[in-house]
Amino acid sequence: MGDTDRVHARFPWSVALSDPNPDIATLSADQVRGLRLPWTSRYSPETLRAHLLANPGMSMWVPRTGEYLVTEPWRRRADIAHIAEAHARRGKQALVEATLDRARENGYRMVLLSDDVWNASPKLYAGLGLQHIERIVFFQKDLRASGQQEVGAQLPAIEVSRAGWRDLDLLLSLDHDSFPWLWWNSRPEFEEYFGMNGVSIFIARSNSEPVGYASFTLYRGWAHLDRLAVVVAQQGRRLGAAQLAHSLRMMRELGAASVGLSTQQSNTQSHSLYKRFGFKQTREQMNFYGVNLIRDAEV
What we know:
By secondary structure, the chain is of the alpha+beta class. It has helices at residues 3-9, 45-54, 92-105, 115-118, 122-127, 168-176, 187-194, 239-253, 268-276; strands at residues 25-26, 60-62, 67-73, 80-87, 110-114, 131-142, 159-162, 199-206, 209-218, 222-230, 258-264, 280-292.
């Protein structure tokens, strides 16, 4: 037992001492009252109950101490699990190991987590085989600035139509043919996305053939470019630039004064495109870490 644990144990309100080899159980909505959510938690008791009801059987806890680890499908996918929050002391490694085992049993190919979880215990996660997967970087653009660079006459002609529910299968096909496996959207993700306020999705066609799609969300005074997709066979023809020009024009018409977006640091081709259109990279970034649960799985 460390000195910190001994001190904590003397307080009358203390929970049981953390154990590196605890008994672990599945965390359900009925057990939230047994947790002591820290003030830094992304959840309230009500939102955590709702989360556990929506994602049963994925999260784990130590009933004796109230330590817990919350897991969810990443982007509502059935092949990638995401550790959303971990609150534990000496029992954390056992909780993570149990979570990896549960994800493997349930057929997940990968487990991911981001900076806020990783930074609390980087050595622990690295020791369990998790490693850096990707860094996400952010760009923004003032839509009110003069001297806009998106000159339509220099871009290929595309036919653009607003997507509806009837286009869901087509959007899934375009999405999976445009992005690496890790960044695919799932059908449930698209279904929720369609129901969000302020979302616009446009399918692009060249000579009547679907070649990609662009989507953005309009907020109060600004917009976020959510996706800019061009199928692999059509990349290199500036179709992404044509879609971007159309999206920026639509954002202005809808009253957006600025636009932001995120993309992988490794996707330098997209960086060049956005910079040509006047976007500036910000200092913000986000990192993802993960482990393949299936040997030689392609990501």
